[in-house]
Design a protein that fits this description.
Blueprint: E1 12-17, H1 32-46, E2 51-56, H2 59-66, H3 76-100, E3 105-110, H4 112-116, H5 118-133, E4 137-142, H6 156-166, E5 171-176, E6 181-182, E7 194-195, E8 197-198, H7 203-208, H8 222-234, E9 238-243, H9 249-254, E10 261-263, H10 273-278
Parallel strand pairs: 1-2, 1-5, 2-4, 3-4, 5-9, 8-10
Antiparallel strand pairs: 6-7, 9-10
Helix pairs in contact: 1-3, 2-3, 6-8
Bound molecules: glutamic acid.
C-alpha cells in the first residue's frame, strides 16, 4: 500500500501551527480567514471520529499586537506579559470559531516541568485522555507567561512532538511556511531537491535542516522540525511537514494525497519522554 494511504486510518492526530501562519506579515494582526479554515478543517477531522489536538503558537505575537509592542529584542518580562494578554485573545478567537462548528475547545499550557516531573506528567496525560474522551479539542501552547529559560521548551515544533508522544498520537502534522524538507535551503539554493518521504532520520538528514526560517515570528526553523521528527517517530507517530499557505492542505493530507514531507514512524521501546525532555538545552 502507498504510504500516504495509511494516513486515512490514523486515529489520534496532533496538528501544529506557527505564529507566522496565523498573522498578516504586514501588520502582525490575526489572519481570520486562515484561523477559520484551520478550525473548519480540524472539526472535519474530528467529525470523522478521530481525536484531534491543536498546538498553536501566536500568543506572544497577539499580545504584542494588542499593546503595540514592537517585536525586536523584548526583555523576557515584556514577552511574558504579552503572552498573558495574547494567549487569552487567541483562545477567545478559537473558542468562538470552534463553537460555530459545535465543538468544544480546551486550553492546556505546558512547561518542561509538566513532562519531567512524574506526577505532573501523569496528571497531564490523564487530562488529555479525559478531554479526548469527552470529545473536546485540546489547544496546547507553551506556558510562555511563566516559562523562563530553565523550564521552557523554546519552540512549538518540539512541544507538539512531545504532546504527540505523551498522548500516544499516531500522526503529527507540522504546518509551516515551507513545503517540507529539501536537500538544502530552497531560499538560497535553486538546486535544492524536495524530499517526499523520509524513511530513516540519518545524521546526514539531520544536518540538512537549517536553523533558519523565512519569517521573523515564531521560533522554529528546519532543525527544530527535524528534532520534532525524531521525538515523534521514536514515539511511534508518523510525522508530516506541510505548507500552511493553504490550510486546506490538511484534508488533502488526510485523504492520503502526496503533500509535504512524510517521516515514517520507527517506535523505539527505549525512548523515554521525561529523560529526553530533561536533557533538552
Ligand atoms: N509559544 C509561543 C507563542 O505562542 C511561540 C513559540 C513558537 O512559535 O515556536 O507565541
Amino acid at each position: 500500500m502507498n504510504i500516504r494511504e495509511t494516513i486515512k486510518d490514523k486515529k489520534r492526530i496532533v496538528v501544529k501551527i506557527g505564529s507566522s501562519s496565523l498573522q498578516h506579515k504586514e501588520t502582525g494582526g490575526f489572519d481570520y480567514t486562515k484561523l477559520e479554515v484551520l478550525v473548519r478543517e480540524l472539526c472535519n477531522i474530528k467529525n470523522q471520529g478521530k481525536d484531534v489536538v491543536l498546538v498553536s503558537s501566536g500568543a506572544i505575537a497577539a499580545g504584542r499586537q494588542a499593546v503595540h509592542v514592537k517585536s525586536d529584542d523584548n526583555p523576557i518580562a515584556v514577552k511574558q506579559a504579552c503572552a498573558a494578554i495574547g494567549q487569552a485573545r487567541l483562545m477567545m478567537i478559537y473558542q468562538k470559531i470552534f463553537a460555530e462548528y459545535n465543538q468544544v475547545a480546551a486550553q492546556i499550557l505546558m512547561t518542561k516541568n509538566t513532562i519531567i516531573d512524574n506526577l505532573n506528567r501523569f496528571n497531564a496525560q490523564n487530562t488529555f485522555s479525559e478531554l479526548l474522551k469527552l470529545g473536546a479539542i485540546p489547544i496546547v501552547n507553551e506556558n510562555d507567561t511563566i516559562a523562563t529559560y530553565e523550564i521552557e521548551f523554546g519552540d512549538n515544533d518540539t512541544l507538539s512532538a512531545i504532546v504527540a508522544s505523551l498522548i500516544g498520537a499516531d500522526l503529527l502534522i507540522l504546518l509551516s511556511d515551507i513545503d517540507g524538507l529539501y536537500t538544502d535551503d530552497p531560499n538560497t539554493n535553486k538546486n535544492a531537491q524536495f524530499i517526499s518521504v523520509v524513511d530513516q532520520l540519518t545524521d546526514e538528514l539531520m544536518t540538512m535542516g537549517k536553523a533558519t526560517t523565512g519569517s521573523n515570528v515564531g521560533t522554529g526553523g528546519m532543525s527544530t522540525k527535524l528534532q520534532a521528527a525524531k521525538i515523534a517517530t521514536q514515539s511511534g507517530a508518523d510525522m508530516i511537514i506541510a505548507n500552511a499557505e493553504d490550510i486546506r492542505i490538511l484534508h488533502r493530507i488526510m485523504d492520503g494525497r502526496e503533500y509535504g514531507t512524510f517521516f515514517k514512524a520507527h517506535k523505539d521501546e527505549d525512548f523515554y519522554l521525561a529523560d529526553y525532555v530533561n536533557q533538552l538545552e
